[in-house]
Amino acid sequence: MTVDEVLAALADPMRRRVLDLIAARGECSATVLAAELPVTRQAVVKHLAVLEKAALVAGRRHGREVLYTVRPEALGTTARWMDHVAAEWDRRLAAIKRLAEES
Length: 103
Prior knowledge:
By secondary structure, this protein is an alpha+beta fold. The protein has five helices and three strands. A three-stranded antiparallel beta sheet has the order 1-3-2. The longest helix has 31 residues, at 72-102. The relative contact order is 0.15.
């Protein structure tokens, strides 16, 4: 999992919705998700594959179905990266402000 994969996966509103639904339920299948979304089960499966590749969800086989759960580690890693980028920009903007005030 890379930050780029996580951001790319989260860029799609439907994947964010899928992730939110799984988080709200704790665990669910593609069939359950498709029943609540305006897309087919096949589309949900494709979205889940992207989320799984980005390490945002994990699937485990339960009989004939695969149940998905949220993996928060990837979100935590991405959030820490975003905090680092934000802190760097804050530092740069503060330096620009100091220079502007000295002029």
